[in-house]
Design a protein that fits this description.
The complex is a heterodimer of chains A (320) and B (227). Chain A is α+β, with helices and mostly antiparallel strands and 320 residues long. Helix content of chain A is 73%, strand content 7%. Chain A has eleven helices and four strands; from the N terminus they run ααβαβααβαβααααα. In chain A, α1 packs across α9, α2 crosses α9 and α7 crosses α11. Chain A starts with a helix and ends in a 5-residue tail after the last helix. The model of chain A has no long low-confidence stretch (mean pLDDT 84). Chain B is built from seven helices and ten strands. The radius of gyration of chain B is 17 Å and the shape is globular. The relative contact order of chain B is 0.20. The model of chain B has no long low-confidence stretch (mean pLDDT 89). Classes of the chains: A alpha+beta (320), B alpha/beta (227). The interface between A and B is medium-sized, with 23 and 27 residues.
């Protein structure tokens, strides 16, 4: 019975202590006025750079995915290929586990697409008309489930699975080799951009984190006499540290909320202006769709930054 | 109650010791004035007692505990037994008079009800009820020192240690502060005052320890200011 009473008393006292530390930290934040404002401002810059890092990473990731999706193997058939042979070939391909999708373009479709593509080029259309017949091949494009599986699909195609009734191959050409080189180059370029871009952003983020740490350290440095007094009136290290950490957390979370609010008009404006430029990536749409994810990271970073910076900065004044 | 045993303190940059071979005993309920010129070692002696400085050699005992051998986690509990008053008041600038006093109780883990009843009582004792919500910058020197005294006595410590408590005050305010310290001593609290204010020492008329160049040169059970 006595033990239960002791436990309840301890819990109540811990709650009271936490409430006092929180109240004191909040009051310090409000009463420090311009110093708190400067701290929040520095943290806004830091968290702003971190949010840029999130958007940059998403943009580059989406670009890479979009390019990966553009990789396919196009198989062009000889003009004499019978539709039934092509269908039989398609059925064989569908049985391959690596194949995700097959799109067939008939000779007539290819011609229509060609005419539509060159609608403004009268010279080309005139030359086409003078030929008198459709010179274009029927084709299929094969999309693999994973970009790494194209090699095995091409290997299968090279074994000669597409034969006509008289035993000759109905495949005219496969364009994977030349596509592959171009795509590899683009993928490499984007990968390098991603690494360099994120690297630079990380350096910026690191620099601003150091500045934020230095700001908090400076704020706590100005309170060093106050910390000494707190120690001398018998406050425990935890009780002295608590309000400073709370003040840091309030600054960090407030900066995070400001960044999250500022991101709404910024992404809306950038999204409207640059969606076409970034190949369909809309910053505002991405922010709206990933609001919880981004908010968790930014608020978490603000919380971590404020509390850790305060904890480290105050440590040196609590040695005795 | 308090015992200094052959305590010496030499700061790294100094060749002359700040304290040299001090042996001193203070009994409970005493009112002790420590006098001497600037640099005589008064403040160093008090800093040793509140464990703000460590002796180079020797030991300091509070009751039976060697205070410089206390574990770090116990140090704040020891400091709660001592109320400190400084020449420059050392109030927390962004806390009101009420909050500066209540902070000492909060830090000691006192319940809210005790804080709500004791702090107004102490403010009344130091005659600052009207200015409870003033920040230190809104108070005069004498008022700030009275807040500091309120903070020092709120947890009913065993000892009050005052380092030049009247150093920044005019004679009228200095007189009031000494009267408050005497009243505290009447309630059986040991009081140690370091001062070079002759008026204060003569007014109290109790034990006087005279220091010079880090040494105790006189210890009079009941005396005045003699240098």
């Amino acid at each position: 019975m006595m033990k239960v009473a002791d436990t309840s008393y301890n819990i109540i006292m811990k709650w009271i202590t936490f409430r006092r530390m929180f109240s004191s930290g909040a009051k310090n934040f409000v009463r420090s006025g311009i110093v708190s404002f400067a701290t929040v401002l520095i943290m806004v810059v830091t968290l702003g750079i971190i949010s840029m890092l999130i958007f940059l990473s998403a943009l580059l990731q989406q670009t890479l995915t979009a390019i990966e999706q553009k990789v396919d193997v196009s198989v062009y058939f000889v003009t004499t290929a019978a539709p039934s042979d092509i269908v039989a070939f398609q059925n064989k391909l569908k049985q391959l586990p690596q194949v995700a999708q097959i799109t067939y373009t008939s000779r007539n479709d290819a011609l229509s697409q060609f005419r539509a593509r060159h609608a403004n080029d009268q010279l080309t259309l005139q030359a086409l008309n003078e030929l008198g017949s459709n010179p274009l091949d029927a084709s299929i494009s094969i999309l693999a489930k994973n970009p790494s599986q194209y090699d095995s699909i091409v290997k299968f195609l090279n074994t000669g699975p597409a034969l006509s009734a008289n035993g000759t191959s109905i495949i005219d050409r496969i364009n994977y080799a030349q596509n592959k080189t171009v795509i590899n180059r683009i993928t490499f370029a984007i990968g390098a951009t991603q690494k360099i871009g994120i690297g630079i952003a990380l350096i910026f983020a690191l620099a601003s984190i150091i500045i934020a740490f230095a700001t908090v350290r400076l704020v706590i440095y100005t309170s060093r006499d106050e910390i000494t007094v707190m120690r001398l009136v018998g406050a425990s290290n935890a009780y002295i540290r608590g309000p400073f950490i709370i003040t840091g957390v309030i600054a960090g979370v407030m900066a995070a909320l400001i960044v999250l609010l500022l991101l709404i008009p910024i992404t809306w404006y950038i999204g409207g202006e640059t969606t076409l430029w970034f190949g369909g990536f809309n910053f505002f749409l991405y922010y709206r769709q990933h609001a919880v994810y981004i908010a968790s990271i930014i608020i978490g970073a603000g919380f971590f930054l404020g509390s850790t910076a305060s904890f480290i900065a105050i440590r040196r004044y609590l040695t005795a | 109650m308090i015992y200094f045993e052959k305590v010496s303190k030499i700061y790294n940059s100094d060749k002359v010791p700040a304290l040299e071979d001090i042996t001193l005993s203070i009994k409970p309920k005493e009112f002790v004035s420590i006098v001497g010129h600037s640099g005589a070692g008064k403040t160093t002696l008090l800093k040793m007692l509140i464990a703000e400085e460590k002796p180079t050699t020797g030991s300091i005992f509070f009751e039976s505990a060697n205070i410089h051998e206390l574990p770090r986690a116990q140090m704040y509990k020891y400091r709660r037994k001592i109320g400190m008053i400084f020449q420059d008041f050392r109030l927390i600038p962004h806390k009101t008079a009420y909050e500066n006093i209540s902070f000492a109780m909060e830090a000691a883990g006192k319940p809210d009800e005790d804080i709500a009843s004791d702090v107004p009582h102490i403010l009344e004792l130091v005659d600052l009820s009207e200015k409870a919500n003033h920040f230190p910058r809104q108070l005069s020197g004498g008022e700030q020192q009275r807040v500091a005294i309120g903070r020092a006595i709120i947890n009913q410590p065993d000892v009050i240690v005052a380092d030049e408590p009247t150093g920044n005050l005019d004679p009228m305010n200095a007189y009031e502060i000494v009267q408050i310290l005497q009243k505290i001593n009447e309630f059986d609290t040991t009081v140690l005052v370091a001062t070079h204010n002759k008026g204060v020492v003569d007014l109290v008329g109790r034990r006087v320890i005279t220091m010079e160049r880090g040494k105790i040169i006189r210890d009079d059970e009941s005396g005045g200011y003699v240098l």
